[in-house]
Amino acid sequence: MPPQVHTDAIVREEEAKLVQRVFLLPGPKAPNVVVFCGVDHGDGAVGICALAGKNLADRTNSPVCLVDGDVHSPYLHQYFGLDNQWGLTDAVLESRPIRDFVCRLPGDNLSLLSGGSRCGEAQAPWKSERLRSRIAELRAEFPYVLINAPPVNLHIDAMLLGQMADGIILILESNVTRRETVRKAKEDLAAANVKLLGAVLNNRTFPIPKSLYIRL
Predict the structure, then answer these.
(1) Does a structural domain hold residue 2?
(2) Which of 20, 34, 81, 96 is such that its CA lies 20 to 30 A from the CA of 49?
(3) How far is the C-alpha of 158 from the C-alpha of 161, rounded, in Å?
(4) Series of mean pLDDT values for 10-residue runs along the chain (216 residues)
(5) Residue 13: inside a domain, yes or no?
(6) Residues paired with 199 in a beta bridge
(7) pTM above 0.70, yes or no
(8) Is residue 16 situated within a structural domain?
(9) How many CB atoms lie under 10 A from the CB of residue 1?
(10) Which residue range forms the structural domain that includes residue 180?
């Protein structure tokens, strides 16, 4: 099971800052489709993507769609306690409108496109124009689309999705992710012409008391 992010007051504040700095920029430059991915396994990308989506939906009152683009280890549906009955892989392999595969989450202005039931079949069309057209449909249907992707150093999927999105946010695990690994990931993203929007340091421990940290 992928690690969860802590949800104390500091984390919630940092999540709000992330949403503000990435999605709520003034003018037309703010991204609408963003990929969240780690560098290696154990980075908490799923939780951060989910929390950012909920925060964005709450703050804007605009429809937000979370997408599980990790067909190797789909988990976003479990984060919300849902089944993975249909989702992105089914949409890639079928011709129905994208809305038919999206699940509206109750009580929220938030929707989910899970990994889908056909992850094992989706490897061939994953690199095709079919996936690009589905992402374009999501962009047209939703003001904001947040995509959880597999680790960038382990699978090419994150690069492919990043090329279809407005950019990528890298999730780094405090005291685990190595500097050399991050440097390689940045170089690979630049070589693939994928925009790096920022990075999140997950599970950071603070060397000073929180009561002092929040005053800084």
Answers:
(1) no
(2) 96
(3) 5
(4) 47 76 82 91 80 91 94 88 90 92 89 88 65 95 96 87 94 67 83 89 51 37
(5) no
(6) 170
(7) yes
(8) no
(9) 7
(10) 33-213
